[in-house]
Write a structure and sequence with these properties.
Rossmann fold; 42% helix; four-stranded antiparallel beta sheet; alpha/beta; 8 helices; Heat Shock Protein 90; 216 residues
């Protein structure tokens, strides 16, 4: 039997309710990909649930309350006590990002916020892989990453001073992983030498719903 990961959900509104249903429906897929099966240990709403009990029973806290009060207190406490946190709360991150990162470091926890960035396109992981490739695989001393969000597409450009490829000219491990991730999102990927370094370009289409929100 797979190991269980206990998930506490903060928020029982439209997003919180939909997330709980999806997590239950897709538990098999999560287990197949991660090797751990998610289990909802508690849901906090304005009128139901106890945060301290949910925190004590959870490995991961998913914050879907919105705003900063009481979300800031809950997320800060969870991170400080070593619970990983996933949030889609743009306001919370914009106003309190540095202190949340500090709390995560203090507690040895991860703060994941990809759902709050670039219209629901998972670009944060691609950027992380870009930086890891430049620093580890490409041995680059300097790297610049530019993310541009347009109505229909998100582009990611990486320009570094590293080699980017193996000695035989084939893409390094980091570039292979980036290409697979971008193409799995329906995007395009290109990479090659430029000047003393290496340049990578990725373009990922935005979901139709996100484009409608932007143009409405």
């Amino acid at each position: 039997m797979a190991e269980t990961v206990n998930v506490g959900i903060l928020g029982k509104g439209t997003v919180g309710g939909a997330f709980r249903e999806l997590l239950t429906e897709r538990a098999d897929m999560v287990e197949e990909v991660s090797g751990r099966r998610p289990k909802v240990t508690g849901v906090l709403s304005r009128n139901d649930g106890d945060f301290d009990e949910i925190l004590a029973a959870s490995d991961v806290i998913v914050e879907l309350i919105g705003g900063t009060d009481p979300a800031l207190d809950y997320v800060t406490r969870a991170l400080s006590e070593g619970r990983h946190v996933v949030t889609a709360n743009k306001q919370l991150l914009a106003q309190h990002g540095p202190e949340l990162v500090a709390a995560a470091r203090e507690g040895g926890a991860q703060l994941r916020f990809e759902a709050a960035v670039a219209g629901a396109i998972p670009v944060i992981r691609v950027v992380q892989e870009s930086l890891a490739n430049a620093a580890t695989h490409a041995a680059g001393a300097d790297v610049a990453v530019t993310v541009t969000v347009a109505p229909a597409v998100v582009t990611i450009d990486v320009d570094d001073t590293g080699g980017g490829a193996r000695g035989d000219g084939t893409p390094g491990v980091g570039l292979v992983g980036m290409r697979e991730r971008v193409e799995s999102l329906g995007g395009t990927f290109s990479a090659g030498p430029r000047g003393p370094g290496w340049v990578v370009h990725a373009a990922v289409p935005r979901p139709v719903a996100a484009r409608r929100r932007r143009t409405a």
